[in-house]
Amino acid sequence: MRFKQTSKARGFTLIELLVAITVLAIVAVLGWRGLDSIVRARVGLTNELEQTRGAQIFFAQLENDSAHLASPSLLGTRDSLRGGQQRLVMVRTVFEDNQPTRLQVVAYRLVNGELSRRESIPTRDLETLDLDWQRAINETDAMPVVSLQKDVASFEMRTWNSDENSWRIAGTDVAPNPATSLVSKPIPPKSGLEVSLQLNGRPAPLLKLFLLGAA
User: How far apart are CA 189 and CA 184, in angstroms?
Assistant: First the structure.
């Protein structure tokens, strides 16, 4: 007598499917969290790199302006640097090929977390320079604005006064009415500038020293 052998395919039970789905869900959650942390770290690193790049551009430009700060021999009793209240105004010399030495007003300003730079047209006329200076101090000039750094919390500075051999907070050595003219009372000679730049999200400010008129 012959018996006919039959086979029956066995599938997954409901419990096995639930266990598999649960494991896949856990793996998916862990993978998503890992990917999310990588993306967040990348975004944070990109922001820090952008901040660092902006700060480097700002410091490089300010170093150049500081090195070419106009000397008293060109300005007489006129002030060449005035800072305070999140802004800095300077008079620098401009040298170009086949051109005489000219003077230019440069202004840095922090507004709504954005640090910018403006510069006037170089001139040899001291009356024009006085007018450019006054407008820059009053912030009524029409000089083009170049953005240097965003996400800035504060912009502070001090000057090193040679005759006093000490640091002075910028803006404390000007005439009683500094907005009226570039000409003021005798200004203590300045040979150094200290700038503190506090960026949002950074634990400590960026600090840099500049020699004035070193070029």
Answer: 13
Q: By the 8 A CB rule, do 169 and 84 touch? A: yes
Render pLDDT for 63-121 as a digit per residue (tens, 0 to 9).
999 999 999 888 888 889 998 889 999 999 998 887 889 999 999 999 999 999 999 99
Beta carbons within 8 Å of 19's beta carbon, 6+ residues apart = none
- Spatial CA neighbour of 100 closest among 118, 78, 74: 74
CA gap 103, 124 in Å, rounded = 6
CA-nearest of 61, 64, 110 to 83 is 110
59: number of CA atoms within 13 Å, CB side?
Answer: 16
Quick one: which H or E segment has residue 93? Answer: strand 87-94
DSSP 179: T
Looking at residue 203, its amino acid is: P
Query: DSSP labels for 180-215?
Result: S-SB-SPPPPEEEEEEEEEETT-SS-EEEEEETT--
Over residues 28-70, the pLDDT tens digits come to: 777 777 666 666 766 656 677 777 888 889 999 999 999 999 9
pTM value is 0.72
